[in-house]
Amino acid sequence: MLGPAWSTPLALERAGLTMSDLTLIDMHEAFAAQTLANIQLLGSERFAREALGRAHATGEVDDSKFNVLGGSIAYGHPFAATGARMITQTLHELRRRGGGFGLVTACAAGGLGAAMVLEAE
Predict the structure, then answer these.
(1) Contact 86/104 with Cβ under 8 angstroms?
(2) Contact between 20 and 59 (Cβ < 8 Å)
(3) How many CA atoms lie within 13 A of 86 on its CB side?
(4) What is the CATH class of 3-120?
(5) Percent of the chain at pLDDT exceeding 90
(6) Which of 7, 8, 32, 121 shows its CA 20 to 30 Å from the CA of 51?
(7) How far apart, in Å, are the Cα atoms of 7 and each of 11, 71, 95, 98, 121?
(8) Helix axes of 3-15 and 32-42: crossing angle, nearest 10 degrees
(9) Average confidence (pLDDT) over 13-17
(10) Predicted TM-score of the model (pTM)
(11) pLDDT of 69 strictly over 80
(12) How many CB atoms lie within 10 A of CB 20?
């Protein structure tokens, strides 16, 4: 359930961005505790050093950018459609706000996780 904490640093690195560059962050909420744990790990210097082998934490999650339209707990989680909903919703909200970068992250069974950086003008 901690896939976003592992996949987000790589996605941001490949995009040449940091957490502070993001306009929106949409994290799939499998469970409230899972979401809180990922948020904590993204800001943890110790996790970055010991688990990821990185010199610095990925970055603090800005609450004003996080799941601004509600997350999977609010919308429901129809499995196959969740990823499409998250991507579509993030792109629409980025466009509504005049553009920017969005991070979409999800965890999955078996310890899997994914992170994607989106850009809209």
Answers:
(1) yes
(2) yes
(3) 31
(4) alpha beta
(5) 79
(6) 32
(7) 6, 19, 25, 27, 25
(8) 50
(9) 98
(10) 0.93
(11) yes
(12) 9
In residues, how long is the chain? 121
- Burial zone of 2 (CB within 10 Å; 0-12 exposed, 13-18 middle, 19+ buried): middle
Report d(CA 66, CA 69) in Å as an integer.
9
Are 113 and 6 within 8 A, CB to CB? Answer: yes
Going across the sheet that includes 112-120, the strands are 24-27, 100-108, 112-120
At position 37, the amino acid (one-letter code) is A
Give the model's confidence band at 107: pLDDT under 50 very low, under 70 low, under 90 confident, else very high.
Answer: confident
Domain ranges, ordered by start, for the chain: 3-120
- DSSP-H helix ranges across the chain: 3-15, 32-42, 45-50, 72-75, 82-96
Q: Which two tokens stand for residue 52?
A: 């990821």
